[in-house]
Amino acid sequence: MMIMNFIVMPLYFLSGAMFPINSAPDWMKTLMVIDPLSYGVDAIRNIVFSDTMVNVGQGVKISLAEMARQAGLIRWDLTVDIAVMAAVAVVLANIGSLSFSKTE
After folding, report:
1. Of the residues 24, 73, 77, 90, which has the fewest C-beta atoms closer than 10 A?
2. Inter-residue contact 14 to 38 (CB < 8 Å)
3. What is the pLDDT of residues 46-62, one digit of tens each?
4. How many domains does the structure of the chain reveal?
């Protein structure tokens, strides 16, 4: 359990779920872009904010997703998020199947 925390917690903290990527230092931004969970958090934000409209005054409405994009909360398009997560899943599944298929 302790070893899992050494793997999961850094991935979680670097995912952008706690704070947006734009507010991080440059060295941390690089780690956050490499972290596949960043794309999962971004995909969830894309989906949750997609159909919500916000009144900004005098009958002018703007999409909540557009506001989040301008604030730096949404960084990539949903198709990019899904493509990166699918690619990482395929790579890790292949690594796992190769490592477990070896018989000794």
Report:
1. 90
2. yes
3. 999 888 888 878 888 88
4. 1
Token pair of 98, please?
């190769």
Strands of 1-104 (E only): list them: 53-57, 60-63
- E strand spans, 15-59: 53-57
Structural domain containing residue 23: 2-101
**Calpha distance 44→38 (Å, rounded):** 10
> Taking a C-beta distance cutoff of 8 angstroms, is the pair 62, 56 a contact?
yes
The answer to whether the beta carbons of residues 64 and 52 sit under 8 Å apart is: yes
In angstroms, what is the C-alpha Rg of the chain?
18
Distance separating alpha carbons of residues 98 and 81, to the nearest angstrom: 26
CA–CA gap between residue 69 and residue 52 (Å, rounded): 13
Query: For the chain, what percent of residues have pLDDT higher than 70?
Result: 98
CB 64 within 8 A of CB 15: no
